[in-house]
Design goal:
Largest sheet: 7 strands, mixed
Helix content: 25-40%
Low-confidence stretches: none
Strand order of the largest sheet: 14-15-18-13-21-19-20
Distance between the termini: 32 Å
Strand content: 15-25%
Structural class: alpha+beta
Mean pLDDT: 95
Shape: globular
């Protein structure tokens, strides 16, 4: 097939218009056009009065070789790359110890799924509950303030991504098209087919729940085993090699190949592996607040008179500002038409996150607005970032009234340094609830200084961003893992053979898609290691 890029059409074009543009571009008649599929549909909104759609299409034609030769100098007309996923190995008949996957978030799911597809019958362990029971526990916390520390936004089937916007795009380099494998598996599990071609695909929480269940069933059908409420409390390590693990109930599992896909909030597990001597480094992450606006304001700022057009949907944004004090402030995990949610996994702490459903039809838009920090801001060793996060989360719990309500301040008051007394046009969506206060003393002063410079700067890009009645809800600390479990070229820990640090918790991903891609890479590395194949 031939791939055409950068085909431009207006918002209200017909399918015939796209077909006609393909024939015009290739200079062929309808008889020579066999079929075409849309590979990517993007949006160019640089001119709000004339928003256009940008298409990349794969075309089947009777003149493929002649056309490729004819347009060989045209970078927008190329042969469609082979994106079909190819397994790197198959399980030996005398498998022996089965590989183990610790964690069943996006990364762990794909480690387990790809291993199962290759015949390795993985054992998958997750400290939390299966996704529907976990959903009950999570919604129960939001409604009744009763926290289950082993079943919440962070722990359980599907990982933290289950309670998010379900974004499926990433900036990772993907020359082997692992991302396409991820999206195809999601569609097979019930995701809308549009995620295969829209430029910023998302799924939303409720659809993710059903998809995760179907992927679990597929792993089991292929011979895998999945256990919930199975927290790993110890690793057996002999002569620098992992030989097995021990669960919280005392059960021991023997395995020389263990993937550690535990997410960015498994703080007790981080402590355990550090105590066992597994090499860990502190790494940068970010802290800040969740900001909320009316979604209609964001739509109008981004789409102009086209706001509300069905093909555009709810607008999102991505912002960054480099401050005079040397800090960077950026938007993170932007959730159009969503809500701000409680995301703590530990008692007496407050953590915020954002979530949207597939429809993205809630009244508010929310995003983390965070300041980058690095280990020099929290000296003290590899786990010092965890202590720093906990300090901020405990302070937010206290500032919110020690009831799991979150402290909240209007943007106008924050910029002036005044305590908020009443809400305005934007109604905060955080559940369980909020306490109006002054957030100034929560973050370090360099963060306040950076945020007070960045918010007006963002207002120049999105008119209304710095409106007085926008809300800031605290505190956002779980932007990424505060540690990196270093691994070598074979994807194993640099000092613990057989332990495969994986995904966001190990410091190698940031979001559903990149975590899933890393999961595929880990599955391949484990399979090759089991089969005794040297890796480049």
């Amino acid at each position: 097939m031939i791939r055409l890029t950068n085909l431009k059409l207006n918002l209200d074009h017909s399918e015939d218009d796209l077909k006609s543009l393909i024939m015009f571009t290739l200079k062929i008649s309808a008889e020579k056009l066999v079929d075409f599929t849309v590979f990517r549909r993007g949006i160019d909104a640089r001119k709000k009065r004339n928003i256009v759609l940008l298409y990349t299409v794969d075309v089947e034609t009777t003149e493929e070789e002649d056309l490729l030769a004819k347009f060989e100098r045209d970078q927008s007309i190329r042969k469609t790359p082979d994106m079909e996923y190819k397994f790197v190995a198959q399980a030996p008949t005398d498998l022996g110890d089965r590989p183990v996957v610790v964690g069943f978030g996006p990364c762990g799911i794909f480690v387990g799924l790809v291993l199962a597809q290759m015949g390795y019958r993985p054992i998958i362990l997750d400290r939390g509950k299966e996704v529907r029971e976990r959903t009950k526990d999570t919604f129960g916390f939001w409604r009744k303030k009763t926290l289950n520390t082993e079943s919440n936004v962070q722990y359980g089937e599907g990982g933290a991504g289950t309670f998010s916007d379900g974004k499926l795009y990433s900036q990772v380099k993907d020359k082997k098209h692992y991302g396409r494998k991820v999206l195809n598996e999601f569609v097979a599990a019930g995701a809308p087919e549009e995620i295969l071609y829209v430029s910023k695909p998302h799924i939303g929480t409720f659809k993710l729940v059903t998809m995760v269940e179907k992927m679990r069933a597929e792993i089991i059908r292929l011979g895998g085993e999945i256990r919930f409420s199975a927290r790993v409390d110890d690793f057996d390590i002999e002569d620098g090699k992992v030989t097995g693990l021990t669960l919280s109930d005392g059960e021991k599992i023997v395995s020389s190949h263990i993937a550690l896909a535990i997410g960015h909030s498994a703080r007790d597990t981080f402590q355990m592996i550090h105590d066992k001597g597994v090499y860990i480094e502190a790494k940068p992450f970010s802290v800040g607040f969740r900001i909320e606006h009316r979604q209609s304001l964001i739509d109008e700022a981004c789409w102009g008179k086209n706001a509300g057009h069905p093909i555009l949907g709810a607008a999102d944004y991505k912002l960054v500002h480099h401050c005079k004090n040397g800090r960077s402030v950026y938007s993170f995990c932007m959730c159009p038409g969503g809500t701000v949610v409680a995301a703590t996994s530990e008692e007496n702490r407050v953590v915020t996150n954002g979530m949207s459903q597939y429809s993205r039809n809630e009244r508010n838009a929310n995003s983390a607005i965070v300041v980058g920090i690095d280990p020099s801001d929290y000296p003290g060793g590899p786990l010092a970032g965890i202590d720093y996060q906990r300090e901020l989360e405990s302070a937010a719990f206290k500032l919110g009234g020690e009831t799991y309500d979150a402290p909240m301040q209007l943007v106008g008051d924050f910029l002036k340094g005044a305590s908020t007394q009443e809400t305005g046009e934007v109604e905060p969506s955080y559940k369980p609830g909020v306490k109006l206060t002054d957030l100034t003393g929560l973050l370090p002063e360099y963060c306040n200084e950076a945020l007070r410079e960045a918010i007006p700067a963002f207002n120049r890009k999105i008119h209304g961003f710095a409106m007085d009645d926008a809300t800031l809800t605290a505190v956002e600390t779980r932007t990424s893992s505060p540690i990196c479990i270093k691994r070598d070229a074979s994807m194993q820990s640099i000092n613990t053979q057989g332990l495969f640090p994986a995904g966001e918790g190990a410091g190698y991903a940031g979001g559903i898609l990149s975590a899933a891609i890393d999961g595929i890479k880990i599955a391949e590395a484990m399979a090759l290691s089991i089969n005794g194949v040297d890796q480049e």
